[in-house]
Records
---
Amino acid sequence: MINIAQFGAGRIGAIHADDLARSGDAKLLYIVDVNEAAAKAIAARTGAQVTDAKTALGDPRVHAVIIASSTDTHADLAIRAAKAGKAIFCEKPIDLSLKRVDQCLAEVEKARVPMFVGFNRRFDPSFRALHNRVAEGEIGVVEQVIISSRDPGLPPLSYLKVSGGQFRDMTIHDFDMARWLLGEEPVELFATGSALVDPQVGKLGDIDSAMVVMRTASGKLCHINNSRRATYGYDQRIEVHGSKGRLMASNHVQTSVELANEKSISTDKPLYFFLERYAEAYKAELAAFLAALKGKKRMPVSADDGRQALVLAEAALASLKSHEAVKVKELEKKFKKS
Amino acid sequence: MINIAQFGAGRIGAIHADDLARSGDAKLLYIVDVNEAAAKAIAARTGAQVTDAKTALGDPRVHAVIIASSTDTHADLAIRAAKAGKAIFCEKPIDLSLKRVDQCLAEVEKARVPMFVGFNRRFDPSFRALHNRVAEGEIGVVEQVIISSRDPGLPPLSYLKVSGGQFRDMTIHDFDMARWLLGEEPVELFATGSALVDPQVGKLGDIDSAMVVMRTASGKLCHINNSRRATYGYDQRIEVHGSKGRLMASNHVQTSVELANEKSISTDKPLYFFLERYAEAYKAELAAFLAALKGKKRMPVSADDGRQALVLAEAALASLKSHEAVKVKELEKKFKKS
Amino acid sequence: MINIAQFGAGRIGAIHADDLARSGDAKLLYIVDVNEAAAKAIAARTGAQVTDAKTALGDPRVHAVIIASSTDTHADLAIRAAKAGKAIFCEKPIDLSLKRVDQCLAEVEKARVPMFVGFNRRFDPSFRALHNRVAEGEIGVVEQVIISSRDPGLPPLSYLKVSGGQFRDMTIHDFDMARWLLGEEPVELFATGSALVDPQVGKLGDIDSAMVVMRTASGKLCHINNSRRATYGYDQRIEVHGSKGRLMASNHVQTSVELANEKSISTDKPLYFFLERYAEAYKAELAAFLAALKGKKRMPVSADDGRQALVLAEAALASLKSHEAVKVKELEKKFKKS
Amino acid sequence: MINIAQFGAGRIGAIHADDLARSGDAKLLYIVDVNEAAAKAIAARTGAQVTDAKTALGDPRVHAVIIASSTDTHADLAIRAAKAGKAIFCEKPIDLSLKRVDQCLAEVEKARVPMFVGFNRRFDPSFRALHNRVAEGEIGVVEQVIISSRDPGLPPLSYLKVSGGQFRDMTIHDFDMARWLLGEEPVELFATGSALVDPQVGKLGDIDSAMVVMRTASGKLCHINNSRRATYGYDQRIEVHGSKGRLMASNHVQTSVELANEKSISTDKPLYFFLERYAEAYKAELAAFLAALKGKKRMPVSADDGRQALVLAEAALASLKSHEAVKVKELEKKFKKS
């Protein structure tokens, strides 16, 4: 049995805690959150104890931590967990600052603790099948990847203000999908965007609609399109084109019911948002983390994967400003210098 | 917390026991099975105690029983549970003999205990949505129901010998769907069938391919087609035609991945069999049973529903032999006389 | 160039005349119709001459006739054409009376002229592909055929009065599809039906909703469901189940456009009715008739195919009345005696 | 009756000549081609006379010309036709040189003859329905357009050498779709590409795989992805995202047949290439040209539409080289200066 301390009792935290309780492989010893009511609710459901970070990290029975607290606390908690010798499951992003991510990763490496970054989409049954079938060569050599990723609705402006902007907050998932499916690092990236959903977003210096194009060293191409609003629900589709064919994963629906009447033939809308669409993915990523811990295997999504996706988000921001394609390696060098 | 004793630790029994363990509403106190190893495995997972029927039914802490043992034990266990004052969740069919079913139902009625029959398909998200949308009048007055229900493969002949035949064993689910969706009892039924999948089935006096047509008093029509084999998996589809349109529920798949290549555009096959397709339905039917118990409400699928589906199976058998449409009420009278 | 005389300048007649004009293989010499205006309209478009039956059949330049006039004139015109030595393309049905059909076929046989019956659905691209792929063994041995055939709306009662009833007028097409796809003659047939769309239909002694089940000598099963109304358009679907899989042909649509919005995902309704759905089939059947004539080959749909479909319609009528499965051969014998 | 002289008897020329013959609105008087055999074949089928450009343009009976000859002759023939006072239907592109296009358009304007550019996709039933439904406001304000456009296979290298490159030859159609659907001119464009299908293409200085992103003045975004190879056929799909939903048009297929077997559920591949997919579009564009001529109305696709798509292709080429987003207006100015 793997003993866990979890930081964060919000929406995602509740999912992880409940999935843990059902997993049979692990036990939630501690739950830590500044929102005491939320922490207590999870404690009541799972038998965990509400405590503070110090106590949780100081308990030698704790094997691993789940960091599902607010983004600005991720890096700090990860560093403290690393120093305490705990394995780490960290929600994305590790931090909004690449510099801070690098500090964090240095500490994790020094402590030689395993670290998993919660890119849940890699564990969605459809995207996983897509990836595996591409990897097995079903469509030959990959040539183009096209990712459509659209949220059902704009989050509150208060959230957007601290989100790091659309590329770091939302597109980061798509950057991870792109790297995973291309099987090769993007070397050049062009991004553009607009505030079309709500002009208030533009006043914050952010965008709510984006298009990105990337290129790898061997010439593979990748496109990402994003919007913060899709009236029909959560739009999550990926196409991979290869020398021998195309593999696509489309949206998931609640039921297979179809209505035919005087107006049209109509079917269910996509599942509403990430909690619905990725319910199975959350279970599977936690299981994968626990299985890697038990088997002392390499983490299937590493801290470096978390870092690389953020590098692409930084490149997108730079391109949005410069109206030029950004060389990813050169951008990284600049960050290291600064 | 509702305390449960469960009879049967086989394939379906394991599902119910695990769903119970996760439900939070109920506790499995006892597990009873002639196969001790199977019972012990469930006990180990759930904290239940392995015991015999007498002990389980004699414990006053037990509020309800789940009968998931072999078909020939259902009626006996249901009668004993009724006499012991326990609420009953009984897998279909209650018994293969209508006479025995009637004896059982008489005892249950006498004991005034609630009884639920496990017609899991009523709790499948797609069929439930179909039913509810029909009931809400989305397609006006129902005129025709068409049910396609095909198993992925023939069960062992040893199973078929004691199954009661295709109509009582397999079509019985479709008869329940038909009654539920027509919203009116079939009064006339014609059935035909063949042993096309395996001539051995014919030698047993059974069929493996069937077609049924039914008619209600107001003239609504219903068709059922069955096969014991579908190379592409479990084929479970329903169409309802009404005065204002058509509602259909089609198969469920594992992933939304589509491959396009030189040969064709291809997608996932339907989920393989009932364990996969109806995993959610099993959870939901148990939850519905527990909710009805807690709320002291009417069972959403009653013992009489179990009986009526068997009456239609008997009518189908009679029609298969006579090559005539059978009047359902007259057939019932004959059974009562005999 | 094949010279044609056509009887009938109505809806179907206009289609054939226009398809002829575009075919390049044939020339419409004469158009005959009691409705002179309709005949003149076709003549003006095609260069044909408006005339009467006697003149048309007496002209030795005429190689073949197209009979697309009202049903009650088909047999008489076919007999006259046969006696005049003309090849015959006859719209279905040859006649509503099996006796009269047999007289007609006897004359055609005596005259040794080729006769084609216009079962257009055999030339629909989807149904033809379905048939060919079944014939090529793609799904192994055929076991079940399921035909859904629903008109968009009820025709005028005045039409229904002279239509011969739903089985002879509408289901006859499905009987032809069944025979074609089963690859074996039905030996037993059960039919039931209701007047659900309009009680006036019932007062005429007819039905507007029907379900049929058929069985062949080797035990293959076939189901047909019909309605005179489908609010969503012309519903024309066929499933064939075999030992190695299932082939289905579904409806055709005008465009591939899909709308996703707050309510649902919606696509085009099926093409409205037979003129739209079978536009290509009408072209292809005429081309097949002309090609068979030119190549002096066997007609791809024979006069006997027209007769056999009518025999099944008669069996359906008998079953509807008797509530029993009808033995097709015995019914035929009765007709011969009478 | 509109009298036509046609230049070009190749693949597209044959389509136009045959569609003309069937249209009933126009008569093909002359067919001109350096390939005399091809010209004669069309003449034989349509009753046209084989002649040279001078004769055709000199005949005062000729109202309009169809220019479907090789690209390098388009501008010259259009100028000569304009000077002769003939209305012009010109296949895309008008010319590969923007300078030459501008000369041609100046002459056409001076002559005040109507000129239509053959962007056939605007007349595809699905894309037209998509456009009209967008225009009617069904999805609110347009925000993003995503165009997937992939050819089934690489043309011969000999063709590629004189094609003007992928952007001018292939993407030009997508640029036209983008302008038509955005309802606003792109002001900024980024393009990238690779030779992934065949390295020989790269040696020609061309690409066979491309991705483009465009932005309009109001911030609408558009993405185009192209490949010269799609093993599954001609991939022609468009998505339009608006403030109230999404409209998509997907591929067209030959039949609605679906196979289910042990491997998968599979359906028809997309129609093979432009001759199949756009057969109806070719008919409709010709009809639209003739209708505009007869009604003396504005051409539904103007010479300027032809020019603007080429401007975007030039911008794409410039961006491919510079790795920067190109301002479309500034690029146009440069061309005018040069």
---
Amino acid sequence: MTINPPYYAVIFTSVKKENAKGYEQMAEKMVTLAKQQPGFIGVESARNEIGVTVSYWQSLEAISLWKQHTQHLIAQELGKNNWYKHYKVRICLVEREYEF
Amino acid sequence: MTINPPYYAVIFTSVKKENAKGYEQMAEKMVTLAKQQPGFIGVESARNEIGVTVSYWQSLEAISLWKQHTQHLIAQELGKNNWYKHYKVRICLVEREYEF
């Protein structure tokens, strides 16, 4: 994560079904694929009761291209049909950041 | 979470030290306090290897007031000195959202 703001963040929060067979494998595959996308900066993720995954992108166009990626579209469909009770996606402009 | 974009998100990612005594208690206290702040909308959080906490706010002013809250300042100091190996804060404008 070496880029300075402004850049974009996609906040993906989700609640999984109890039996989400095949989910972990697909999640790993999607991270691998996302990392190869143009404009990808990084991704951070954690899950307990809910999952919070934040991916970082150089532009809205990069986000849009990833959203329409064929393999990602398949994952999205499986997510809706098999894996998620609920999810929410927020497209955000990162304006400022600081760290310790 | 009933507000429509634009609103603000604060993405807080952190790596905790192994022995973070008193952390859980303070984290709960901070969530309770944040919920009482003007302009607070909601918070979502998960932790495995890293922690990802996203809080949602109506304005930059609300975020700034919370950052300067006396109890929160104490927590921030304890965080730097006792609990975190590393953390990063990103202030973001939520431009668009959709859910399933």
